[in-house]
Amino acid sequence: MVTLTRCSHIFPSSLNDIQPGVSSAKDCPAATVWTILEQLGYEDVCAQLGGDAQGPWIHRLENVLTLDVAVHDRFDNMRLWFEEVRGEENRYRVVLAPGLTHTLVGVPKQVKFVARHGLSVPSPKYIRVHAMCCRVAHMSGAAKYLDVLIRNMEELQVLAEDGTSADVLMYALQGHRPREHP
């Protein structure tokens, strides 16, 4: 099978301009991501991805996957994530949000990440944190809210004069794109 693929960041590249411990949520709402990671004990992840004088490290290979366009969309929108298979290095179960099936999405139930020519595979820690965020989003109902925002972004042709579509505008301005349909 031939398909289009896209570079997918486990931690989104929109975090690129935010410095952990320097930017505040007032400066940029995405700065909250760094704060939450630090509070959960992932200071090392913030240090690894936050950048330094040599530039941002968000694009490091450990933070990147190459995914089919439709899979990339679901991964970015927290409707697909990977959970480690115990005892098997770099092998993951593909977990889907409620209402999706592996057949419908066209993905296998398990995948194994491999690297060639001495390059790095995606970081198991980054994948675990992404999976945790997806599970929490679905348990809290946040995923449904994101689905509504994305649907509104796709369907909305003009913003409401009374400001009721401000959340859609903010979501779009933060660098999120409407879903791509194959």
Describe the protein in words.
The protein has about 180 residues and is an alpha+beta fold. The protein has 2 domains: about 1-15 and about 30-140, no CATH class; about 140-180, no CATH class. The protein has helices at about 30-40, 45-50, 70-75, 100-105, 125-140, 140-155, 165-175, and strands at about 5-10, 65-70, 80-85, 90-95, 110. Strands 3-4-5 form a 3-stranded antiparallel β-sheet. The protein has a two-stranded antiparallel ribbon with strand order 1-2. Strand 3 (about 80-85) and strand 4 form a beta hairpin. Helix 1 packs antiparallel against helix 2 (about 45-50). The two termini are about 15 Å apart. About 20% of the residues are buried. Pfam families: HNH_2 (PF13391). This is HNH nuclease domain-containing protein.
Task: Describe the secondary structure blueprint for this structure.
Layout: E1 5-9, H1 31-39, H2 43-49, E2 64-68, H3 69-76, E3 80-84, E4 91-96, H4 102-105, E5 110-112, H5 124-140, H6 142-155, H7 166-173
Antiparallel strand pairs: 1-2, 3-4, 4-5
Helix pairs in contact: 1-2, 6-7
Quick structural summary:
The protein is of the alpha+beta class and 182 residues long.
Radius of gyration based on Cα positions: 17 Å
In spatial order, strands of the major sheet run: 3-4-5
User: Structural class of the helix and strand makeup?
Assistant: alpha+beta
Helix content percent band: 25-40%
Could you list some keywords that capture this structure?
about 180 residues, disordered C terminus, HNH nuclease domain-containing protein, HNH_nuc, three-stranded antiparallel beta sheet, 2 domains
